[in-house]
Amino acid sequence: MTASAQRTIPARPGLDLEVREAGTSGSPVLVLHGGPGPLSISPLIDHLAPDHRVLAPTHPGWEGTARPEDLNSVPALAAAYLDLLGHLGLDDVTVIGTSFGGWVATQTVLDDREGRISRLVLMDAIGPVIPGRQITVPAGPPAPAAAGAAPQGGPSAQSMAAMRAYAGPAMADADMLPRLSTVTCPVLVIWGADDTVVTPDFGRAYTAAFPHARFELIPGAGHLPIREEPEAVFAHLDSFLTPRAPATGH
Q1: Residue 196 sits in which domain range?
Q2: Cβ atoms within 10 Å, residue 124
Q3: For the chain, N or C: smaller number of CB within 10 Å?
Q4: Burial, 8: exposed, middle or buried (Cβ in 10 Å; 0-12, 13-18, 19+)?
């Protein structure tokens, strides 16, 4: 396991983010967790850290962190992460998002006016509206366990409340898919073949909406493929992130 450190970073005046950092060299990677919280992406952080500078913020409202009143939508959260990248002066950033974090990652790329983000990776991401398909939100723990760890890796009651504050009652953005045609960076879409929260049809819809995307289905995995079939996920991820030699000389 790679050593990592937790620190508080002022993304902008009045907004401090709790960020786990790992790795010191290589291109930066911003990893955005889903409903189960920061621990659910630990295998991903550990895998990336030897070759990348990894930043994994805790979404405000998770793990006992405060969620300011103005952080009340996915675009507002995406703006906070763009402020974080700007504060740190990072460019050529890969953004990876799982589940709810994938929706936030997509919005972050859509709103990246300064071109800081060069690649996007989505893993079993919620967000789009697909006719005839619904998101099946996993049940959280009983109310008394709200402040503690959720069983079976599911979201805690506190996390679900924060996610609903960002995502709204529909837990989706009906206008998202048509806007993805403006995304010029390469996109990797990874999906658990047995995901019942957002079925692979959601992943295929995401992939079809981006101009430069590829879809990789992970057999034997559900909604958290980085926990269920990590080696298969890492193989696709490493292939996507490996710099390709330029076609022409310098």
Answers
A1: 4-241
A2: 28
A3: C
A4: exposed
Sorting pLDDT into bands at 50, 70 and 90, what band is 25? confident
131-172 pLDDT, tens digit per residue, is: 888 888 765 444 333 333 444 556 778 888 899 999 998 899
pLDDT at 72: 95
CA 10/CA 32 separation, integer angstroms: 17
Does residue 162 sit within a domain? yes
Supply the CATH number for residue 222's domain: 3.40.50.1820
Residue at 43 is within a domain: yes
Do the strands 117-123 and 187-192 form a parallel or antiparallel pair, or are they unpaired?
Answer: parallel
pTM (2 d.p.): 0.90
Task: Give residue 21's Cα distance to chain centre.
Answer: 15
193 belongs to a structural domain: yes
Total domains present in the chain: 1
Mean pLDDT of the chain: 90
What torsion do the CA atoms of 149, 151, 157, 163 make, to the nearest 10 degrees? 90
